Amino acid sequence: MRRTIAILIATVAATLTAQEVRLPNKPDSFHFAVIGDTGTGGRAEYEIGALLAQYRRQFSFDTVVMMGDNIYGGQKPADFKKKFEDPYKALLDAGVKFYACLGNHDDPSQRSYQLFHMGGERYYTLEPHKGVEFFALDSNYMDRAQLDWFEKQLAASKAAWKIVFCHHPLYSSGAKHGSDIELRKVLEPLFEKYHVSLALAGHEHFYERIKPQHGVYYFIEGGSAKLREGNVRKAEFAAASFDTDNSFLLVEIQGDELHFQAISRTGKTIDEGSLQRPGTNGATRSSQ
Amino acid sequence: MALHVALFLWAAAVSPSQFPQFEAKVKAYTQLVDRLDREMGRVPDRATAEEVHAHKLALATAIAAARPGAKQGDVFVPTEAQPLIRQIREGTAGRDGAAARKAIGEDDPKTSKNTPQVALRPNEPYPDGAPLSTVPPSLLLRLPALPKSVEFRFVGKALVLRDVRANVIVDYIPNALP
Predict the structure, then answer these.
(1) N or C: which end of chain A has fewer CB within 10 A?
(2) Contact, B152 vs B140, CB < 8 A?
(3) Is there a contact between A198 and A192 (Cβ–Cβ < 8 Å)?
(4) For A199-208, how does the pLDDT look when each residue is reduced to its tens digit (9 = 90+)?
(5) Cβ separation of A182 and B136 shorter than 8 Å?
């Protein structure tokens, strides 16, 4: 009963708060959403889930990438329902596919859970749109086998947009965690060598966009259910940060351009802009 | 610079042949669990939450039945535990090891708030809701490579060998970290 009421509240809240989508929103471009650190089963997660469904009516997307910590606490079937299947029911019913990576609170057996589309693997690739390839990594356990696999996949990729997503951020202004220097040491050289365009992460319970580093764009979206309010510190590399409410990110790729819009739990646009694919000519435009 | 650091880490990687007994024990363990897994029917790559959970529990039960007298040191054989500890301590020492120490400490289930305690016993399930420590890449490159079905984790100062499929502790080395 309480769960039903929570869903109703979230739905009503989303209906009241959803604002217009400002991306170019072209029908022939590739659209996806980014959420992170979601698996609480709490009210904020339900509200963000309802808001995502609301925005999808204006900005059609069939792909959601999850930045890990997909299920906090218990990992029993009831937890999967409460912390994933119910909050995103409207999207799942509409056929939206969620692609997860593992966070430090996730039991690696999640890799076999059908609705996370990991195919039984801790790390995997997907190409949901021609020219756009995602590389999902397990940043909790970056061993030699995974690094070898990652380099082979990057070397073989023909995609113009190579997008990496994993739980731990290589760059972050968070006071709680901050940049993962260990991970950066081994991943950044591969990003540079194989022209990764975009890297997405969570772990920090807020939204952040990083100034391009060595030709790579970085975003953090770890505030889609949990929130670490006031955790953002001043950092030279940060382009935009938001740590006062929960959030999610919408992304559109059209040719060599990437458009993004980060949206808060109340439907406020907290960051937006356009980025040119690294290695191509063009300027970067963004606003907060 | 970053590339040089990465190359150094690769170069610093320990040859697996330095731990032949440990590797043989891991191989024997994974062969046992592979067999148990095959006999009960592997969990499909696209399973329901119920299937994932039921398979994990059944496999853990089967493992406990198959190695009833499992004790600390069975896989981390004492003669090779010390060189492993040395690798870990060198990899986490001083200024160079600061980032590795930070990464391990952040998700340590021993110090995380409001999470169940991990009981360090072979065959013991790793508790639902306890975070898994991040094992930094620089440290993993110093340790012997493992098959996909088992992994190293830290619980407090202990190095744990964890079965990924069954979510159980295979073995551990106490005080591997200083």
Answers:
(1) N
(2) yes
(3) no
(4) 999 999 999 9
(5) yes
Min Cα–Cα distance to chain A from B20, Å: 18
| Mutation target among B4, B111, B132 for the A interface, most CBs of A within 10 A | B132
Contact B56 A109 (CB under 8 A): yes
Q: Residue B54 CB: number of other CB atoms within 10 A?
A: 15
Do residues A258 and A249 touch, judged by C-beta distance below 8 A? no
Q: Which helix or strand (DSSP H or E) is residue A13 part of?
A: helix A2-17
| Coil, strand or helix at A51 | helix
The DSSP code sequence of A152-199 is: HHHHH---SEEEEE-SS-SS--BSSS---HHHHHHHHHHHHHTT--EE
Q: Helix and strand tally (H, E) in chain A? A: 6, 14
User: Rounded to whole angstroms, how far apart are CA atoms A46 and A248?
Assistant: 12
* Domains held by chain A: number: 1
Residues A161/A277, Cβ–Cβ less than 8 Å: yes
Which whole number is the average pLDDT over B39-64? Answer: 94
- Asked whether the beta carbons of A30 and A260 are under 8 A apart, the reply is no
Record: contact A189-B6, CB cut-off 8 A:
yes
In Å, how far from its chain's centre is CA A22?
19
Task: Report the predicted TM-score, pTM, of the whole model to 2 decimal places.
Answer: 0.91
CB–CB of B140 and A142 under 8 A? yes
Beta bridge partner(s), residue B135: A141
Q: State both tokens at A243.
A: 């740590």
What CATH number is attached to the domain comprising A122? 3.60.21.10
Neighbours of A20 (CB within 10 A): 10
B153: closest chain A residue by CA = A141
The dihedral over CA atoms of A32, A38, A43, A49, expressed in degrees to the nearest 10, equals 20
Q: Do A143 and B6 touch (CB under 8 A)?
A: no
Give the containing element (helix H, strand E) for B151: strand B150-155
Instruction: Tell me: pLDDT of B123 over 60.
Output: yes
Kindly give the pairing relationship between strand A269-276 and strand A285-287. antiparallel
> Which residues in chain B are closer than 8 Å to A88, comparing Cβ atoms?
none
Residue reference for tokens 């309010």: A229
In terms of Cα–Cα distance, which of A53, A30, A99, A85 is closest to A257?
A30
Residue extents of the structural domains in chain B: 2-173
CB contact (8 A) between residue B164 and residue A114: no
Three-state SS for A231? Answer: coil
Contact A182 B164 (CB under 8 A): no
B165 interaction partners in chain A (CB closer than 8 Å): 109
Measured between beta carbons, the chain B residues lying within 8 angstroms of A189 are: 2-3, 6
Binning pLDDT at 50, 70 and 90, where does residue B7 land? very low
B173 Cβ neighbours under 8 A, 6+ residues apart: B76, B81, B84, B85, B158, B159
